[in-house]
Amino acid sequence: MNIEFMIEKLRSCKSFLSLEVSPSVSAQLDKQLVEQLQDIQKVDAFVCTDSPLARFKPSSILNSIKLQQALKKPVICTLSMRDRNSIALCGDILAANEFGLRTFLTLTGDSIKNGDCLEAKGVFEDSSLKLGMIIDNLNEGKAVNGKILKEKVDTIYNFQVINAYANNPQSIINKMQKKLNASHISALFTQPVYSAKAAEFLLTNIETLNAQNKSNCALVLGFFPVMSYKTALFLRDKLPGVFIPNEWVQKLEKAHHKGIDEENKVGLENSLVLMQEIQKVHNKFHFMSANKPNLVKEFI
């Protein structure tokens, strides 16, 4: 496992693939899932989620460490400002450094109202920009309280998320600029992209901003195969920052009425064609498979 090699490939090579992993609610890692993940050789890094949609999951930091040790590949740990304040987050990131966990996908976090722990309260001390600044400070040898670290950290790498779609495209450009100005970001991961045109827009603008800011921020396109009509409706109606063409929804609706096998067939065909189209534009993907490693093999 070589984190620096992964970072260099992300920045310099023409292809990159990360795979999202969402650990189950258990005191132990799913051994069968780990074995399936070990079998996927072409993945450059795994991304461990942090209670997505505010639904309870075990600690993303501890699970990332366990996954990294089991898979022998870099694991990017997702962290949000939703559940912890800056003291706790800085402490967690600092302590994780000794265990070799040095890559983080930093988020503001989904609203508690979306989750399954409605009695919980969101912290939301700040946005993902604050997490980026915490990581920058740690790399400079300073803790969140401004005090100098007794021992310096091994370099920590920060990744952030950007929407794939907006009614006002300029708002995406503005957010890219804001994130690049706030902290050092190794890569921007996008929400799922469902057209080559959207991929071109995102790639063109990150390249322009990199030139303007003299930065070297990579772009990783989110890719989520839509295998059912229900999922297509959720993406269309419930997930901000994502646009799925009505044509997809209509095809899946027709297939849905014919049965689950036809629905899966149409979903897979649509998704394969999409990936081939996007690969012509940019071949760096973050694959979201809802913990279905065998589905990933259909694409890689």
**Major sheet, described briefly?**
8 strands, parallel, barrel
Strand content: 15-25%
CATH level 1 name: Alpha Beta
What shape does the CA trace take?
A: globular
What would the average pLDDT be, to the nearest integer?
A: 93
The helix-and-strand class reads: alpha/beta
Q: What is the element string, with H for helices and E for strands?
A: HEHEHEHEHEHEHEHHHEH
Give the uncertain stretches in residue-range form.
none
Task: Report the C-alpha radius of gyration, rounded.
Answer: 19 Å
**What is the level-2 CATH architecture name?**
Alpha-Beta Barrel
Intertermini distance = 21 Å
What is the fold-level CATH name, i.e. the topology?
TIM Barrel
How many β-strand runs? 8
As a percent range, the share of helical residues equals: 40-55%
Individual helix count: 11
Strand order of the largest sheet: 1-2-3-4-5-6-7-8
How many discrete structural domains? 1
InterPro entries: FAD-linked_oxidoreductase-like, Mehydrof_redctse-like
Keywords: FAD, Flavoprotein, Oxidoreductase
Cofactor: FAD
GO biological process, one term: methionine biosynthetic process
Secondary-structure map:
Layout: H1 3-12, E1 15-21, H2 31-38, E2 45-48, H3 60-71, E3 75-80, H4 86-97, E4 103-107, H5 128-139, E5 157-162, H6 169-182, E6 187-192, H7 196-213, E7 218-223, H8 229-238, H9 246-258, H10 260-279, E8 283-287, H11 293-297
Parallel strand pairs: 1-2, 1-8, 2-3, 3-4, 4-5, 5-6, 6-7, 7-8
Helix pairs in contact: 4-5, 6-7, 8-9, 9-10
